Amino acid sequence: MHIAEGYLPPLHAAAWTVAAAPFVVHGARAVVRQVREDPDTKLLLGAAGAFAFVLSALKIPSVTGSSSHPTGTGLGAILFRPPVMALLGTIVLLFQALLIAHGGITTLGANAFSMAIVGPWVAYGVFVLVGKLGGGLSVGVFLAASLADLATYSTTSVQLALAYPDAASGVLGSIVKFGAIFSITQIPLAVCEGLLTVLIVRLLVKVSPAELLRLGVLRRPATTPAPQEA
Amino acid sequence: MSRSALVNWLLVLAVVVIAAVPLVFIGSDTEFGGADGLAVEQIEADHPGYEPWFTPVFQPEAETASTLFALQAAVGAGFLGYLFGTLNTRRRLARPAAVADAQPDDRA
């Protein structure tokens, strides 16, 4: 989903940066508030950041014969609400833009908008919705993370389509074209991302049930293994 | 192995299978180039005159770039491991009375 450096016309690059900036600033405040109000969750916050850092480095081959990477932003959005991931996701993108020439500074706003803003909000919305519908934790986490992944890549397709409308079929035709490159490659990878996020949430439930309860991810303490169970 | 650990390993296995299937069935002559790069090719095909108006300040060679990608994954994974170790230790220390009871469960 990284739009390469210099490949968004200046006006588009500026517009996406302006659109993303308030979310990232708000996200920075949310991170500071989280650490101050509940210092015990600092480690979980680190885990959310590290997870996005690892997953966005994994280039996984896909059935279309190209490869792409997960985003890892669903986890943090579920644990800490989306604003936190607006900052953490942007930091990951900045690292990749500066050190690996993956993505770019001029396209950082657009990439942050798709990966650090749209993805996390979709994850959070889906997670809350599944909870309301009575779905279990794993189902909610899986759907949230995988749909967030797809939403990120769909957003990238729209961003590129707006910048490069097809000569004959316009923006819509171009969305289909970039969607074929990104979204279809991404479907199996979104499933991978969903499964990996379920895995990490299961591990977190084991090592940090109290914090997850406090964050509202777990709704009852039943998952803590009772000592006499053994 | 406990049921919980089994489910965790099955999740890992599923991810490995999904990633490996394209490698096995699409064939080894496929390059599996990045989708990000394909998007750039698409733009260049549709707009032959387009020149990127900004170039990366620092552009590592392909080999170096893959090292840096591996480094990114390694640093993140190392940090995750450290965090899990710390969380686990903290949980054990917070419930000293329960540790003796919890250990048989962990070994199961």
UniProtKB/TrEMBL annotation, chain A:
The keyword Lipoprotein does not apply. It is a multi-pass membrane protein. The gene is cbiM. GO terms for cellular component: ATP-binding cassette (ABC) transporter complex. PANTHER family: COBALT TRANSPORT PROTEIN CBIM, PTHR43627. HAMAP family: CbiM. It comes from Pseudonocardia broussonetiae. Pathway: Cofactor biosynthesis; adenosylcobalamin biosynthesis. Part of the energy-coupling factor (ECF) transporter complex CbiMNOQ involved in cobalt import. Belongs to the CbiM family. It comes from the Bacteria. One of its GO terms (molecular function) is cobalt ion transmembrane transporter activity. InterPro entries: CbiM (IPR018024), CbiM/NikMN (IPR002751). Forms an energy-coupling factor (ECF) transporter complex composed of an ATP-binding protein (A component, CbiO), a transmembrane protein (T component, CbiQ) and 2 possible substrate-capture proteins (S components, CbiM and CbiN) of unknown stoichimetry. GO terms for biological process: cobalamin biosynthetic process. This is Cobalt transport protein CbiM. It is found in: Cell inner membrane; Cell membrane. The chain crosses the membrane at residues 13-32, 44-64, 84-109, 121-145, 180-205. Keywords: Cell membrane, Cobalamin biosynthesis, Cobalt, Cobalt transport, Ion transport, Membrane, Transmembrane, Transmembrane helix, Transport.
Automatic annotation (TrEMBL), chain B:
Belongs to the CbiN family. The keyword Lipoprotein does not apply. Pfam families: CbiN. Pathway: Cofactor biosynthesis; adenosylcobalamin biosynthesis. Forms an energy-coupling factor (ECF) transporter complex composed of an ATP-binding protein (A component, CbiO), a transmembrane protein (T component, CbiQ) and 2 possible substrate-capture proteins (S components, CbiM and CbiN) of unknown stoichimetry. Part of the energy-coupling factor (ECF) transporter complex CbiMNOQ involved in cobalt import. It is found in: Cell membrane. The gene is cbiN. InterPro entries: CbiN. GO terms for molecular function: cobalt ion transmembrane transporter activity. The keyword Transmembrane helix applies. It is a multi-pass membrane protein. This is Cobalt transport protein CbiN. One of its GO terms (cellular component) is plasma membrane.
